[in-house]
Amino acid sequence: RRIKNPGPVGQNKSLGNALVNQGKAKRIYTQPNIAKSTSPEKVLDSVTQESNLEEFLVNAELADRDFTAERGDFKIISTSNASVIKTEDLTSKSYDELVGKYGELLKIPRRPKRGTYETADELNKLENEMF
């Protein structure tokens, strides 16, 4: 015989439904009432997560020093001397004049050609020389 009604039948029908409802209630988790507007505050900051720049800025702030950049001044530092170049001077000159005057400073290092090295150590040595 096939059962048409899979639910409990007879005198214990209400007891069966109560057990089913109780099982459903256990599966549903309700969170306690927490105020959602207040977020937990971070008590400690990790010191190990600071980068070099952040560490420098914190030290500068503690020393009450101001590190602001001068706009329009660029320093080209070489081993022999250091010079300051104003951007107004650069815009008035043509590209060829600038390349003629500062060309050796504007070189972009490239990777060595394939035939000049055979091992990874030789490649590292050549790359370090190029840079």
Q: How does this model look, in words?
A:
The protein is mostly helical. The chain has a domain at 73-130. The protein is built from 5 helices and 2 strands.
**Percent strand:** 5-15%
The arrangement of helices and strands along the chain is HHEEHHH
Question: How would you state the average pLDDT, rounded?
Answer: 72
Number of helical regions: 5
Please tell me how large the radius of gyration is.
37 Å
Shape: elongated
* Distance between the amino and carboxyl termini: 89 Å
Largest sheet: 2 strands, antiparallel
Helix content: 25-40%
Low-confidence stretches: none
Number of strands: 2
Structural class: mainly alpha
The largest beta-sheet arranges its strands as 1-2
List its traits.
131 residues, mainly alpha, two-stranded antiparallel sheet
Secondary structure layout plus pairing:
Elements: H1 13-27, H2 52-62, E1 73-77, E2 82-86, H3 87-92, H4 95-102, H5 120-130
Antiparallel strand pairs: 1-2
